[in-house]
Amino acid sequence: MSIGVGVNAWVWQSPFTRESTPLIEHAARMGFDAFTVPVESPVLIDVDEIKAVHADYPLRLYVSGAFSPDRDLTHADPSIRQNALDYIRSTLAICEQLGVNHLVGPAYSATGKRRKIPQQQRDREWELAVRGLTEAGQMAADHGVTLAIEPLNRFETDLINTAAQVKQLIRDIGLPSVRIHLDTFHMHIEEQSVYDAICLAGEDLVYLDASESHRGTPGLGQVHWSDVASALRDINYQGDCVIESFTPDCTTIAEAAAIWRPLAPSQDALAEEGARFLQALFAEL
């Protein structure tokens, strides 16, 4: 089997703009196999510039979504749900223009939406998520893209926290264009066994974030990486494992992810050391 190692631009910058595009070359020179472009605002993405750099540094590209309170498929206000679909539609168009096959992230709701609510309301929001993601999944198929849906930990969402929940969600949606994205940071908090969670996702797993328990350099925290590697081997995972972390220098995302201090001597050190660790880990499979 062959598992590539990638990196998300959020390691260095947020939001991704035209000025962020050289990070693709930077990642390639570090030895990464893949690169994730976060689309916080579609109007900031210069597709032609990305294509120009990517032509010289042809890493596998992914696009990750950003789901703010005004992009919430489970909101009671239909205009906010529609805004979420409009954002997904615009981001899918960027994916198609770039030849990207996967749009990843927690597309079902707004990140940071966590409440103690009655079961009846939670059931209603689940139904809204299924309805919205069914429409989004149909749009994705039209663009030749797969949506990969990510569970988040309990401090970031109250809807989808575990592999079992996201597996049920995609079963309820029932579209081949809607699959699973897992993140080792969230699994470290929510899962009884990271091995079992990955195996449960199984063939539906199409994208994996390599995030350490403290959001710092992979391999220097408490994530059970040997279990991660064993599970990926056992499900014959053929995708990439993408380092996701954040810099405290970007105020908005640092606040959203609770990054209050530097997580490594430098962001380059985090990326380079994390890449070496993951490449050695997967070389043993």
How much is the radius of gyration in Å? 18 Å
The CATH superfamily turns out to be Divalent-metal-dependent TIM barrel enzymes
Structural class comes to: alpha/beta
Number of domains: 1
Strand segment tally: 8
Strand order of the biggest β-sheet: 1-2-3-4-5-6-7-8
Mean pLDDT level = 96
List low-pLDDT spans.
none
According to CATH, what is the class?
Answer: Alpha Beta
Continuous helix count: 10
Give the second-level CATH assignment, the architecture: Alpha-Beta Barrel
Order of helix and strand elements from N to C terminus:
EHEHEHEHEHEHHEHEHH
Largest sheet: 8 strands, parallel, barrel
Classify the helix fraction into a percent range: 40-55%
CATH topology: TIM Barrel
Gap from first CA to last CA: 8 Å
Shape label: globular
Write the layout of secondary structure elements.
Elements: E1 4-8, H1 22-30, E2 34-39, H2 47-56, E3 60-65, H3 78-98, E4 102-105, H4 119-142, E5 146-149, H5 163-173, E6 178-183, H6 184-190, H7 194-201, E7 205-210, H8 225-234, E8 240-243, H9 251-256, H10 267-283
Helix pairs in contact: 3-4, 4-5, 5-7, 7-8
Description:
- It is built from ten helices and eight strands.
- The protein is of the alpha/beta class.
- It has a single domain, classed as Alpha-Beta Barrel (TIM Barrel).
- It has an eight-stranded parallel beta barrel with strand order 1-2-3-4-5-6-7-8, surrounded by six helices.
- β5, α5 (163-173) and β6 (178-183) form a beta-alpha-beta unit.
- α4 crosses α5.
- The protein is globular and about 50 Å long.
